[in-house]
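Predict both folds.
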Amino acid sequence: MSTLPTAPVMHRPKASVQTPPLHYPLGEQLPASGSATEVAPGIFWLRMGLPFALNHINLWLLRDRMPHPTEAGVMQEGWTAVDCGIDNPATREAWLQVAQSVLQDLPILRVLVTHMHPDHMGLAHWLCERWQAPLWISTSEYQSAMLACSGQSNFGGDATVKFFAAHGWIKPDELAVVTSRVGYYPSMVPKIPPSFVRLMAGAPVKIGERTWQCISGFGHSPEHMALHDAHHQLLISGDMLLPSISTNVSVYAMEPDSNPLQLFLDSLDKMAHLPDETLILPSHGRPFKGAASRIAQLRAHHDERLSELLEACSQQALSAHDALPLIFRRALDVHQTTFAMGEAVAHLNLLWLAGRLARYRGTDGIYRFSTAQS
């Protein structure tokens, strides 16, 4: 959701292009909280709850072996955990159940986090401390998590309110809620491990008998890392490629003139070559096959929204807040509006930076976009 997603905003792209349907090899099967489903040899699917409209996150356990930390020349058997869930009592209890029912008395050897959003990063500190395991994450995600955990972020407070007001969200009672959200991230990620092992685009990561390649993704978060096992046709996609909802892509107060939607669309190109038989393990929804079809659907979805915005801005100049009903076809509460505003600015910024819209700031201090200067 996201000013910071705890998970992607849930709008469901229409299949407005003719693409083969996605295939779900496990059907409707879902693992119960505290248990696991084996989706490939040595790869187990965990599903843990979230207290949001998007009510779950998928986590992954991969059988692993690594050099023993205190015994030279000895390999230690155990697990790599991919992503963590938020830090709350229910998620801690679910992990304790997993330790009893799934880990087979073997330790977690490392905690690999795809990106810094709370549902992925929240319990990393607890898992790392409990099993004396290192955190593996990209540098940008780690540093962003440290800032957010300390309150130096875009996730609430005065800077975020000013940013939203400049894009047309000016209702004082609603913005008061945004001001209070300065503690939003640390409420779910109270602590960050003090050190990490750096993940880098293109770098191999050996986990057990498998070698995965890091695929960087941008737009949803600073330096998201998916993991691709080309030999066994597997992709742990994180939030970059989801089967039924579109990933939140937002502009934030710290980088108000950024173009994250273009970055996100460019990042999808790195996965467009995947064979149809690649089993995609997403952070939300069910494991699926059909990467090319899903990418085509996502592109069509964003193209449709961009076309609608262009048409609307040819009729009158619009702020991002004005544009919300064009992008989101349902009522939004304040929490959802914080996510939706960032995404509306992302769509408008793409068109503006591509020279397809003009942007100006009125005497009221609000940015508006139109097809010609007003």
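Second protein follows, with its predicted structure tokens after the sequence.
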Amino acid sequence: MWAELLCGLVIYKLLKRFFYDDDTFDLETSKSDSIFSVADRIQKVYGGKVFLGLRIPDADTSSRQNIDIVLVTKREAVVISVKDFPGSVTIDKYGSWIVTEKNKTEKFTDPVVEVKRQVGVLEGYLEQRGVALPDEYLSGKVILTNPKSSSIHSINFPSEVISFDQWVKLKPEQKSMLSSWIKDAFCGGKKEMQDAIHQQLHFILGSAPMWDRLELKENKNLLGEFLEFKGKPADIQSLRNIKRSKVSRFIIQKSSMFGLARSTIQLLYSARDYRNEGDSVSDWKEITVRSSTEVLFQPHNSSKVSKFKLSSITSMSLSA
């Protein structure tokens, strides 16, 4: 009996490696998932529009500032930094954050200082693009999404920090009747912005530099940089037009099986239209390639290049 179980386990691992020879199964703890989860919940509860994975040019450092989320409403815009600290959090006398998990302790730079820096970079970028924001319209918040980060020390968190205990109290039914801490965190009694400025802000953030977005099956999302396709020469030749200068998004429509030797994927894409935000769906083109064709993708918070078979992908959005 044990021999049969062991044999079955070996066969399962071999089949898993054969059919799923990519990094889809390594994403359970991806920070990208936390960012998408926070963005989805914030938009459902609070309304407005969210922009994810921005890479805003920083004139002072000649580099790009990574911003997890920007929530935009007519009352305000909030830069949100998502922190998934895997342990209880304390703040030392120097302002550093000490995260303790079991017997392991790790020190982090104050995320409130980081998010204030992001607010300044974003404000400068918007000014360069002709948007004059009202006073105090743009602010920053840090959201702690890991239940392990909840501790008795949360009372010492700065007002810019939304602790996990506060985060779990935010429910969709509160949209029209926000709790007091949400009002303090996001509303603050601010006046609504003029429609013209609001629309301009949407367009600029929608066209700002950002990470590429990979949407995988089982509702997994990943932010990072698309590098290239890998596969048979004929398939790579068919995919030659899918590059960020020409295409903003492609989707996997369906797959077909031609015996055990080969299965194919139908991929739809449309030409990038720089005149409008996003892409036009009026002229989708179709490509059929082997489902074993792979996408090489560099997650934004990892030094490792990951590979994914097209059969595990739902869609991919490419930044300009």
